[in-house]
Design a protein that fits this description.
Elements: E1 7-13, E2 22-29, H1 37-41, E3 45-49, H2 50-54, E4 62-72, E5 75-85, H3 87-93, E6 100-108, E7 114-123, H4 138-157, H5 161-168, H6 172-180, E8 187-199, H7 205-211
Helix pairs in contact: 4-6
Length: 237
């Protein structure tokens, strides 16, 4: 017997802050006895290219992780679960004759998510520099790491997860770090290379439906007795 005959296809839906909502499809065994299909789907993590989610080929080096939180009919509603770089992009950034500076910061968003944010930066040549190498001193690296910590903490702890994702996509924090560190040592290729969710708050269905734009269901208008269009139903015996 073909095992696919007892399986069903479900659509994976991305949150509404991404341009492309349809991520793909996933398979699951049909509900049988105590084994419920919905329970088997919850908690699944899918990895999608940001280029597919936002229809922008320039973002193809970013991978976004989405976790299935709730099942709505044949749709799997997901929420942001993390972000990473592709290994080829990371390897293309690492070169000789420059310093690589990294820092990770644990931050808590206003809606209760505990995240670990990883920053990466590379030193670059000064204007009119003759020397071949661009190595930063250990004291300068410490100062740059301090700036990374300050900027990421300030930006991430002042907003909720949805706002934070919208800051991560255009690389706003990387540009802020690059600008702030110009006086210490010139930097380039400054990125938030990875984001991990360490702890999530208690699951809130209303908030998830709001993220997916499904919360505003039409429940009809309230009719008050005595209004012009109010008609009382007559029950026939």
């Amino acid at each position: 017997v073909d095992p696919f005959t007892r399986k069903d296809w479900y659509d994976i839906k991305a949150p509404s802050y991404f341009e492309n909502r349809n991520v793909g499809k996933t398979l699951v065994n049909r509900t049988q006895g105590l084994k419920v299909a919905d329970e088997a789907l919850k908690g699944r993590v899918v990895e999608v290219s940001l280029a597919d989610l936002n229809k922008n080929p320039e973002d193809s080096f970013r991978k976004v992780r989405l976790q299935v939180q709730q099942i709505n009919g044949k749709n799997c509603l997901t929420d942001f679960y993390g972000m990473d770089f592709t290994s080829d992009k990371l390897r293309s950034l690492v070169k000789k004759w420059q310093s690589l500076i990294e820092r990770h910061v644990d931050v808590k968003t206003t809606d209760g998510y505990l995240l670990r944010v990883f920053c990466i930066a590379f030193t670059k040549r000064h204007k009119n520099q003759v020397r071949k190498t661009t190595y930063a001193q250990s004291s300068q690296i410490r100062q740059i790491r301090k700036k990374m910590f300050e900027i990421v903490s300030k930006e991430a702890s002042a907003c909720d997860l949805k706002e934070l994702v919208s800051k991560l996509i255009p690389e706003a924090m990387g540009k802020d770090i690059e600008k702030a560190c110009q006086g210490i040592y010139p930097l380039h290729n400054v990125y938030i290379r990875k984001v991990k969710i360490l702890k999530a708050p208690k699951f809130d269905l209303g908030k998830l439906l709001e993220l997916h734009g499904d919360a505003s269901e039409d429940t009809g208008a309230r009719i008050v007795p005595g209004a012009a269009d109010f008609v009382e139903g007559i029950i026939k015996k």
